[in-house]
Amino acid sequence: MADLIAQGKLPEHRWRRPLPVGEPIVLGRSAGLWAVPWDKHISRRHAELVWDGRRLQVKKFPEAKNPIFFHGRQAAECRVLPEEHFVIGQTSFLLVDQPWSWAGEGGSPIYEHQYSYPDLASVQFRNPDSRLEVLSRLPEVLAESVSDEDMCVRLVSMLLAGLPHAEAAAVAVLKASAAPQDFSGHGKGLAGSEKFSGTHELCQLERPSEQGLQGAGPFSETAGWIQGLYWDQRVASSGPFRPSQRLILESAQRGQTVVHLWGPVGGGTERSYTNLGQYDWAFCTPILPEGLPPWVIYLAGRFPTPGFPAEPSPPAELREDMKWTELVASMVGSLRRMRRLERHQAVLSQFFSPLVLKNLGSEEPDRFLSPQESEVSVLFCDLRGFSRHSEEQAENLRELLDRVSQALGVMTRHILDQGGVVGDYQGDAALGFWGWPVRWKDMIERTCRAALAIRAEFFTAAQDPQSPLAGFQMGIGIAAGRAVAGRIGPPEQAKVTVFGPVVNLAARLESMTKIFHTPILLDPAMVEAVRQKVPRSVARVRRVAVVRPYGMEMPLEVAELLPPADQYPQLSDEQIALYEAGLDAFLAGRWSQAYQYLHQLPADDQVADFLTAFITQHNRMPPPQWNGVISLQTK
């Protein structure tokens, strides 16, 4: 498989990525996996690359500003063979077809050391500034990765930049299910909970062939444990890369850094390891975050001076490199755990409101989500005009779905902004509630603010024909009372929502908004709470009528929630008082007086029109045994 190596001005401005055969690749400064973010001379989308198995076709995009140089000349399009390169800006791109394979029998080490982190803690860095500089950039560079594969590639580049003695670097990705049973006689395996943490060991090895250490069985059986390898060499022409899979698995098994040293056998000078002749040492450091596939950092290089060290132990500079790599492994492990948590939260946020997620993180889930009775306020918001639009856009349902999703987004955003929980979506309707998991002292005011904000945004959208919400209206029903909140439903598929008569009442009130031609209706408990707890600078209330909802026995006085006078001057406080005086006369059977009050209200007050029409239909005379209750014939 061919690789493309990008190298900028600085050592850390580098990556090596395998080229897929026949798949077009976009190369650019912000091109995802193939991004070259360090070079401002490279356009956001600069060139398209296609590897056909023999050569790499490079084609510059018309919008790219700077030229591509190939063989010293500008080229809008070129075909690159292995060992050739092209240049964009200050970055060179080298095509290599350099194979790699696992080290065989000749790769067996003469000496092996194992180090736990405490063993390396006492090692002093002789040049800490340069090492800390690379470490300080590591979180930012890796956090920008678009995938685990991209993170591995970036990590390899950072390792070569931070370890001047290393000639080759790799990250091996092991399968999450890998659990070699006592591969080396220590530890509990990758799936175990304990790591080998004794003091460092030095053991001179016999020259085993393909056997695992201490007779653990044929080494070839472990090949399936390594899922992927991402690697690079400081010098691309330094020959094939032949890492030791036994060293990788030994480090992962023990859960600590393991170093292999190669040297002359029996005091002679002839090398006995032709397969790894270009390297004097290699060490591995594992990254074993719980619940994630294990990674192992693999580094190999030469001793600073020719020949094997006088003492069969790693020299000081190699111990410094191992300590630095331990720090890198710790940071990468933390970053991987953080990314996993972010991914989980991103998934959960689609199903749980932020308030629920926040409490889930601090309490035991089963206890927290268990249903419990609470005083709640429930807001049920439904979309108007959906049926008509679905008929008109029957041939373009995706566009209609996008518009409905945006409408639901408006409802959701304002419910969440006021600390509410979205309990359910029912087609083009949303259910929000307050009172669980947080018992807000101002939950009634929060509910009013959310409802009025939804009303205002839909009203504004109705004025703009280009708005995706144009043509839609909404109706909101709000009720307050006792309910059960938490995990509701069977074990197979439950919801975090609210349950009880108050929910049904909110939905019924929402349906009544169509009858009274008002955006928001309240039940009596909510009306009383609003009058007591919500300033008129936030919301106002107007009693509407006493009704017997369809299918219900008990009458109900419903009221309208209105914005404050400065935000809704169409209906002043005096006019609200005038309507309620007319309502009192209507309820008492003084319909002529009620009719006179209602006719003094603005002509576009549709709520007043409902009572006026009802009086007119009965010739301004209350029916016999009138009790003030209007029986609704529809939901």
Structure, described:
It is a single chain. 31% of the residues lie in helices and 24% in strands. By secondary structure, the protein is an alpha+beta fold. β6 and β7 form a beta hairpin. The protein is elongated, with a radius of gyration of 36 Å.
How is the CATH topology of the largest domain named? Answer: Beta-Lactamase
Rg: 36 Å
Q: How would you sum up the global shape?
A: elongated
Measured distance between first and last alpha carbons:
68 Å
- The CATH architecture classification of the largest domain is 2-Layer Sandwich
In terms of quaternary structure, what is this? Answer: single chain
The biggest beta sheet reads: 9 strands, mixed
How many domain regions?
3
> DSSP helix count?
15
Mean pLDDT, to the nearest integer, reads 83
Percent range for β-strand residues: 15-25%
How much helical structure, as a percent, in the residues?
25-40%
Count of distinct strands: 26
CATH class of the largest domain: Alpha Beta
Question: Which residues form runs of ≥5 with pLDDT under 50?
Answer: 179-222, 264-276
CATH superfamily of the largest domain: GAF domain
Name the structural class: alpha+beta
What topology emerges from the helices and strands here?
Elements: E1 3-7, E2 14-18, E3 25-27, E4 47-51, E5 56-60, E6 68-70, E7 73-74, E8 77-80, E9 85-88, E10 91-96, E11 111-115, H1 117-121, H2 128-143, H3 148-162, E12 166-174, E13 201-204, E14 226-233, H4 245-254, E15 257-261, E16 281-287, E17 295-301, H5 316-348, H6 354-360, H7 365-369, E18 372-384, H8 386-392, H9 397-417, E19 421-426, E20 429-434, H10 443-462, E21 473-488, E22 495-499, H11 501-516, E23 520-522, H12 524-533, E24 540-548, E25 556-562, H13 573-587, H14 591-598, H15 606-617, E26 630-631
Parallel strand pairs: 21-23, 24-26
Antiparallel strand pairs: 1-2, 1-10, 3-4, 4-5, 5-8, 6-7, 6-9, 9-10, 11-13, 11-15, 12-14, 12-17, 15-16, 16-17, 18-20, 18-21, 19-20, 21-22, 23-25, 24-25
